[in-house]
Amino acid sequence: MLDWYCFIPLGALARGARIITRSNPGYVLELPKQHWLGEFPAMLLELGKALHNARRDVAAATATGTQEIEEQKARLETVLRELSEGVLVCDRDAASCSTTRRRSSCCPTAQRWDWAAPSTSCGPGRPSRARCNC
Fold it and tell me: Which of 48, 57, 54, 60 is nearest to 17 (CA)?
């Protein structure tokens, strides 16, 4: 009797919880009509729906953040194209990521650039100053 009303429904509940959390938040629990689990299955379904909503919200926020970053990058590239001075944009490893036309015509190779030591306001990942040796 304990098996039929408690342990078997608990096994079904565990399988259902695994399905709900991993792949199908709308999964309907397959429990016997009579069990001693009380409101626990209903609370598990609510938790599964909340998890699904949280995942959806995170995905939407990530997509929005990615779009905003791409828009900001496009604005910065527009500003760089309009500058009259030569500018070289690098990543944290000092690899050239972007350059303006003026810089390309002045110094086509990065070896002509002397990288100055970062100023006190610069730190890891912050811009350093460079001078063209053309």
Answer: 48
pLDDT band at 61; cut points 50, 70, 90: very high
Residue 76 backbone phi and psi in degrees, to 5:
-65, -40
Percentage of the chain beyond pLDDT 70 is 69
Q: Which residue, among 61, 127, 53, 57, has the nearest Cα to 94 in the 3D structure? A: 127
* Residues 9 and 55 grouped into a single domain: yes
Domain limits for position 124: 83-132
Q: Report the 10 Å Cβ neighbour count for 44.
A: 18
Whether pTM > 0.70 for this model: the answer is no
Same domain, 89 and 60: no
97-106: long-range contacts at Cβ-Cβ below 8 A with a sequence spacing of 24 or more? 103/132, 106/132, 106/134
90 and 57 inside one domain: no
